[in-house]
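User: Quick sanity check before I run a bigger batch. Here is a single chain. Can you write out its predicted 3D structure?
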Amino acid sequence: MTDLLWQKPGVKLDTRIQQFCAGDDVILDREFFLFDIQASVAHAEGLQRIGILDADELAGIVHELEALAADFEAGRFVLDDRYEDGHSAIEARLIDRLGDTGRKIHTGRSRNDQVLVATRLWLKDRLARLLASCREAATVALHRAEAEALLPLPGYTHLQRAVVSSAGMWWSAWAEAFIDDATRARDTLAWVDANPLGSAAGYGVNLPLDRDHTTQALGFGRMQVSATYAQLSRGKFELAAIEALSSAMLDLRRLAWDLSLFTSAEFGFVALPAQYTTGSSIMPNKRNPDVIELMRASYASVAAGRTEIEHLLSLPSGYHRDLQFSKGAIFHAFGRGLGALELLPDLLRNMQWKPDAMRAALDPSMYATDLAIDLAREGVPFRDAYRQAADPARWNEGDADASLVARTSPGAAGDLRLDVLRERLDVLD
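Assistant: Done. Predicted structure follows.
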């Protein structure tokens, strides 16, 4: 490992303690490394603007940071246990290439300042991807709701056959769900779009750092003004990002449950694309819906990340090393969550209904609610209409198509109001 900036003379480094304190930083920082480099370029530009670096020194640092980014992406530079973390690796590279000029890069910074801005940029990137995935899933669902508005599909309550529903109602539900999820992702992205760079360890430094410049250079929507609040926001902003992700993942989990049921032999309503299934290693007759099962499972990682950060935040104000663990929490939450969500739109595009099986599952009892409403419309008090409609002797083979057309309450099959959803979705473009 390279020399530690913070190591004091005469203090022997205990390898086990250092490994414990460093944790998985080197591994996790691979995820944030390019963002750390990007922020370091902006920080160097800010130092030049206040006279800490001259023009030639800035040019050398920017050149070497860009070369390091290229080497990292190409695999020529590996962030490994030679370094304490990604920040020390950046500084070591600059010192190796530029000598004393490289040593100036840490002026006015703390390692916490570095990780805070790198993870903030990373969160912005992930929230943008979350927004895009939710918007795409909503677009597909809305398109299929329009195309399959009156395709009969059994509707269930308590996992029991209840009423005649439609593919259009099923699709419109997911369209609106993912529009809401996209809206929350967009709003959360706008909320966390605040530049913490230049807050040091939460108390500023004795330099007129050009934080307005770094805010603009890094594409932040605003500067996080209070250096101390920049520390208080660490964990709080991460928690908000995971909560936005969890909204979409909760919807994905329930959608995956539907598909798990609908693809089973007992239901037989849906055929999945072949690439979303795998063969059994022991049962030659099986094709298993592994992808949707893992989609369903992915919420667990998101929930775990949320819980980990929530428990980290039981701290007084100021920086605490506890917050180091928030890096792993957001990495695992978004790694699993986005991985699942980004597979969803193509699944929704390519899954196929089995209309014959869907119609065959509609039995006479599923028209009982229609009968009760029809009797009530004719003037029979609803309680009496309900009792009459509950009598199996009153049940007949119904007309699924007529039932759906007659379901004219707003949001039901006969009045899906898809134009309203389309307007909400268009605003997100």
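The mean pLDDT is 93.

User: Great, the batch can go ahead then.
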